[in-house]
Amino acid sequence: MNYETVIGIEIHCELKTATKMFSPAPVTFAKRPNSCVNEIDLAHPGTLPSLNKNAVKQAIKACAVLNLEIDPLIRFDRKNYYYPDLAKGYQITQQFHPIGKNGHVSIPTSNGEKIVRINRLHMEEDTAKQFHYNTETWIDYNRAGTPLVEIVSEPDMRNAEEAVAYVEKLRSILYYLGVSDVKMEEGSLRCDINISLRPVGSEAYGVKTEIKNLNSLNNIKVAIEAEIKRQSELLDKGDAVEQATRRYDDVAKTTILMRKKEGSVDYKYFPEPNIPPIRLRKEWVDEIIATLPELPEARKERYLSIGLSEYDATVLTQNKDLSDFYDEILKHTDQTKIAANWCISELPAVLDTQHLASAKNKLTPKNLADMINGIKAGAISSKQAKDVLPHLIQGENFEDVVNRLGLKQVSDTGELLRVIVETLDEQAQSVVDFHNGKDRALGFLVGQVMKKTKGQANPALTSTLITEELMKRKP
Amino acid sequence: MMNFAHYTNQKNPTQAVNQAVEAAKKANAKLNAVVTLVDPGEQLSQLEKYAGGKMFGIPIVLKDNVNTRGILTTAGSRILGNYVPQYDATIAEKLREAGAVVIAKSSLDEFGMGGSNLSAATGPVYNPYDLTRMSGGSSGGSAVLVASGVVPFAIGSDTGDSVRKPASYNGIVGYKPTYGRISRYGIIPYASSLDHVAFFTRNVTDAAIALEVLSGRDDRDMTSLQLPVEDYASALNPSLKGKRIGILTNVLKAITNPDIQAHFATLVANLKEQGATIVDIEMNQDLLSAILPTYYIIANAEATANHSNLDGLRFGVQKEGKEVDEVMSASRTAGFGKQIRKRFVIGSYALFVENQDKLFRKAQKVRRLIVEDLKNALSGIDGLIAPASAGVAPKLTDTSMDQLSSTYLIAENYMVMGNFSGYPSVTLPLGYCDGLPVGVNLTCKLYDEQTTLNLALAIEQATGLADQIKEVA
Amino acid sequence: MNRYEPEYFKSLAKQLRFSLSDEEARAIADEFGVLLDQMDLLDKIDTEGVEEMVYPIEEETSFMRDDEVGHTFTVEQALFNAPHQANDHFVTVKVVG
Ligand SMILES: [Mg+2]
Ligand SMILES: [Zn+2]
Fold this sequence. Notes:
The structure holds 3 protein chains of 3 kinds.
Chain A: E1 3-14, H1 53-65, E2 69-70, E3 73-74, E4 77-80, E5 90-93, E6 100-109, E7 112-125, E8 129-132, E9 136-140, E10 147-153, H2 160-177, E11 189-199, E12 209-214, H3 217-236, E13 244-249, E14 254-260, E15 270-271, E16 278-279, H4 282-290, H5 296-305, H6 310-318, H7 320-329, H8 336-350, H9 365-377, H10 382-393, H11 398-404, H12 413-426, H13 428-435, H14 440-452, H15 459-472
Parallel strand pairs in A: 12-13
Antiparallel strand pairs in A: 1-10, 1-11, 2-6, 3-16, 4-5, 4-15, 6-7, 7-10, 8-9, 11-12, 13-14
Helix pairs in contact in A: 2-3, 5-6, 6-8, 7-9, 9-10, 12-14, 12-15, 13-14, 14-15
Chain B: H1 4-8, H2 13-31, E1 34-37, H3 41-46, E2 59-63, H4 90-97, E3 101-106, E4 126-127, E5 130-134, H5 140-147, E6 153-158, H6 164-170, E7 173-176, E8 196-201, H7 204-214, E9 244-248, H8 249-254, H9 258-273, E10 277-281, H10 285-289, H11 291-306, H12 324-335, H13 338-351, H14 353-356, H15 360-379, E11 383-387, H16 406-411, H17 417-421, E12 425-433, E13 436-443, H18 449-463
Parallel strand pairs in B: 2-3, 2-6, 9-10, 9-11
Antiparallel strand pairs in B: 1-3, 4-5, 6-8, 7-8, 7-12, 11-13, 12-13
Helix pairs in contact in B: 7-18, 11-13, 11-15
Chain C: H1 6-15, H2 22-43, H3 75-79, E1 85-86, E2 89-93
Antiparallel strand pairs in C: 1-2
Magnesium ion binds next to loops of chain A.
């Protein structure tokens, strides 16, 4: 039979904040275990939550760009269950009044843009990390209490491509907003995919399964395709799909049952009595929205408008760190295309452009802009610039490098002419050859001049001057 | 008079504190009120830093649900029998900075969940007026250590009259301020929306001073009030000229003890004589009868979640098991008394999705109606008074009170209105029945601590029962 | 509302990660009757259109904590009360499920 796939996605996204959702302990990655906690994160008796203003701000930013209605009254609830990674025995979340609801986002598909509706965005806190060994489980509470938003889509996606496009779109938006690191491998962005099939033309939803722990875009794609295959085979045989939580197995190339859903768990949600409702000041929310950072689409438009090609604009926008760097360069040069070319072609060859702010890289946008201006002005050649770049990455000034390496390009017409006259005098045969229509001769003569100037002659200028001089010597 | 001034005027605070420690040891042999005696040496060595503090050199007791860094804190439960906090409750810091010296952590009903102090892991606390009787609870240990003269001040907590009832049974002042006036940060909870930090003194003036020390916004408690600390003590004024005091007639009708009726009538006559206008206030009887079930549902529902952190994994007494669920279950089964487990089961039942409308949310709605009725009752008056209990402290063996009688439902439980509403409420001595104390309770309007203290002072002057001490030598 | 067998309360207790003895479960089942009678007192009250009261103080607040690092435990403090620990981690027997 022909089936239509129905996919809804829940995304948990760690917010970029200095401290936890409800405690002033720091949020950091890969620190000494249990070194970023206090009594609140460990749920010591008597502790109370204290809401992080910046986490709320990050959630507001996300709501704004996902077109969600923002509830100006912040309320929290308790979700009760027992698990070792949940210190309090309940998670503080927003079950009844999510900060954002009824939004949407547009995603690119092979059939053009498609709107995916977003049911809700709510704030909550992350759990601790567990390490399971043979007979023991070790627990590190550093992650416990890290601010999260959970973004729940409507079941609007119809295939793996759309699901991937949706996740990719959200990742890029949240990253551009500075809301999150969105690192799927490190778990700062986690996807749960709800997936069901129904006969084409049917309105009713089929039984869905939830696939958890997908840590890359590619895994999302292959897992969905595998699950579609698994479910359709079941349905073809006349078997029922069982409502369950599953995970994708890389080796078996299919999804594996984690646990069945026997009825729904009763989390006994109730309003969190320790956090009174908080009224967001309208001016504060308005200001956050008014000062939202530029989003990828707007940035690409801007690049097109300053003359970049579709390709360059796309490539730059896909790498926010590099694109930010490019924008910094443009503060010191108007050579938009040359600068784009250097960012796209040359920098990736010598630098990790996903992490430009690393100890190894001391390249400043100003120095790179100076170099680009130098190329444009003919002070150095593009070829020389490639030799200059590694020195700039070491933190040297463009001027200093050029002087130290003696790379100053000779663009002084008088000096160049002196060398050219000398060369033409020495190479009388080549002059004759030139006038006899042997084009090669011009290249030879330029080469000779370059040799005499130890490569410092401006090649374009040299070529022009030689041609003029040759014309004067026309027999 | 062993009031605050007696201690703050001492030339040698160390000596006075050490005397209190000795008195605590002696009294405790009879009262079983102490969970942990605190060696005050370290605090005394630092005491000079806090010279001029409002409670300088005063030996005090903290209920054992107040977290004290480095000092065992059990909340009266076996599961915390080895818990040594690594942080201080906000009030522990405030009291230290005011110059107070903690000499003991006192017994309580397990997690404050009781009114008898019989459920404490360390056993019952005995009433200094009659050792065969209850201290009352849940702040029983704190109450008897103040009543027996060991200390002039002790912290308690009041979730459903847990300071104001034992104050009545022990002839002392039990003050519960407006919800949020005193930070709850670091107080091991019972039920968050009802929990109040409250305290015992032996007179109203000391209560006013203590309130100044304990009050104030704390950003660590989001329910803490954003209101300045007032000069309650210097503004004390017992004048009743122009004051209107309401008598809660529903309670008086439910009380059958003629002695208590007589003491209360005497007090009322006296207040009238001092210039107060006395008015009868009758609240809705059905609402008052619903206080206990309303309380029971809300308190136990919040409590079952509040204590889900006690799983034996990060702190507390852990019992063995083959896998982690078994460890949690074994630890919680052994760690919680049976009363507590019963209440958690009931509270959890009220929270099930299919029961919430009928139980938890129903109780929260009734709570609102009760608070509205109380607000109306207080609208034309300055304070509402009634006897704080239907009788003297019960015998330790007495658990026979008919749970559906109006005496029990109303007279023994009406003070929970103060927890529902967050309104300031204080119990102070009313008189003695056969040598056993009974108290009078006063409840005033939200935020109005000064009127509460002023009226309490007037009552204290009317009864002449300030600074009552019953030594147990 | 329903009355329940003691076994029902045992199953509730299990969800709450503790157990009840036969005697305790029977006592709760018995006492549940009293509780239900008290619930009748609640049922008598008309709460049509009444909103739940979740907080005693219902004045609106707007305070939120600034995102600045504050009180943090040392690893030693974090693990001070740990029943079992190894290499800076809390340790339990294996988590199943
Ligand atoms: Mg979810
Ligand atoms: Zn979630």
